[in-house]
Design goal:
With 307 residues, the protein is α/β, with parallel strands linked by helices. The protein has two domains: 139 residues, Aspartate/ornithine carbamoyltransferase (Rossmann fold, 3-Layer(aba) Sandwich), CATH 3.40.50; 156 residues, 3-Layer(aba) Sandwich (Rossmann fold). The chain contains twelve helices and nine strands. Strands 7-6-5-8-9 form a five-stranded parallel beta sheet, with helices on one face. A four-stranded parallel beta sheet has the order 2-1-3-4, sandwiched between helices. Helix 1 packs across helix 12, helix 4 packs across helix 5 and helix 6 crosses helix 12. The longest helix has 20 residues. The chain starts with 13 loop residues before the first helix and ends with a helix. 45% of the residues are buried. About 2% of the residues have low confidence. The structure holds phosphoric acid mono(formamide)ester. Phosphoric acid mono(formamide)ester (CP) binds next to helix 2.
Length: 307
């Protein structure tokens, strides 16, 4: 599979996802063997205009496992020519002269698409703005569901938290909507509910979904609960909220009794207060296994764009 850029979840078809998962499994075997030197002549530019731990480190680790080299600018808004007023387009044109692939986290929705328009090398969207997309996170999330639940067709997923601005849940909803008999529960307060563009997409593609505001009611009926941060620029008090409000979007030991034995809890991380630390030791807590899958899927994506 050869990819020109990775910008949004909608660009992937089910056959492409199957191929990506096959490649990700191959990458797991390569990492277990200690990596490869196959991409030792390739350079990845890691250009981050916003904070990141997982995405940046896992991409850099992925490139290292492939034998490639990495150029890094974290906090590009402070330490790149952005400070001098250079446009994103000019920066991308220049960085493309020094690298074979650019991994870009930008603080504006549509930043990655703007970059791809002018780039001479593949651009990978590592998250763009609040309410944009984070396709590589969604791909590793989907891979985690595939590995842990063993199927994606028919899966029942609750997405919880700030769905309006959460780019991971937005990208994941697009991907899950491509599979058969999927059931999606959007659990959030009205202000933070999934935006109309995703609702329209799912409606147009006949994907089953329900709007909910109480996690405890739907926990017994799902295979995956996908928690996200409930902090919001729309409703800042949401993160704290009253105890009653918070318990609607919060998992602790008492909630685990409601959760099926074969179900899993996911979270793109970092978490704030959505999942109690005491839940971490439960085998159904899949969020740290999920972060490890990021290496394999991002290696597969790098191989797919580098050819
Ligand atoms: N999940 C995720 O995107 O984490 P980072 O912000 O640490 O990259």
């Amino acid at each position: 599979m050869k990819l020109a850029h990775v910008i949004e979840s909608q660009q992937f078809t089910v056959p492409m996802l199957s191929e990506l998962f096959r490649l990700s499994e191959e990458m797991e075997r390569i990492v277990a063997r200690g990596g490869t030197r196959d991409y030792s002549n390739k350079i990845m530019a890691s250009l981050f205009y916003a904070n990141s731990t997982r995405t940046r480190f896992s991409f850099e680790s992925a490139m290292s496992r492939l034998g490639g080299k990495v150029l890094v600018t974290e906090h590009a808004q402070s330490f790149s020519s952005d400070v001098s007023g250079e446009t994103l387009e000019d920066t991308i044109r220049v960085v493309g002269n020094y690298s074979d692939v650019i991994v870009l986290r930008h603080n504006e929705v549509g930043g990655a698409a703007r970059a791809a328009k002018v780039s001479v090398v593949p651009v990978i969207n590592a998250g763009d703005g609040k309410g944009g997309q984070h396709p590589t996170q969604a791909l590793l999330d989907l891979y985690t569901i595939y590995k842990e639940i063993r199927t994606i067709d028919g899966v029942r997923v609750a997405m919880v938290g700030n769905l309006a601005e959460g780019r991971t849940v937005r990208s994941l909803a697009y991907l899950l909507g491509k599979f058969e008999r999927v059931r999606l529960y959007f659990v959030a307060s009205p202000e933070l509910q999934m935006r109309q563009d995703i609702i329209d997409y799912l409606t147009h593609h006949n994907v089953w979904f329900a709007i909910e505001n109480d996690l405890s009611k739907i926990l017994p009926a799902v295979d995956v609960v996908y928690m996200t941060r409930s902090e919001s620029s729309i409703q800042p008090e949401e993160a704290g909220g009253t105890t009653t409000e918070r318990s609607r979007y919060y998992i602790d030991d008492s909630m685990m009794w409601l959760f099926p034995q074969k179900a899993i809890i996911m979270h793109p991380l970092p978490r704030s207060n959505e999942i109690a630390a005491s839940v971490d030791s439960d085998p159904r807590a899949a969020y740290f296994r999920q972060t490890k899958n990021g290496i394999y899927v991002r290696m597969a994506l790098l191989v797919s764009v580098l050819g």
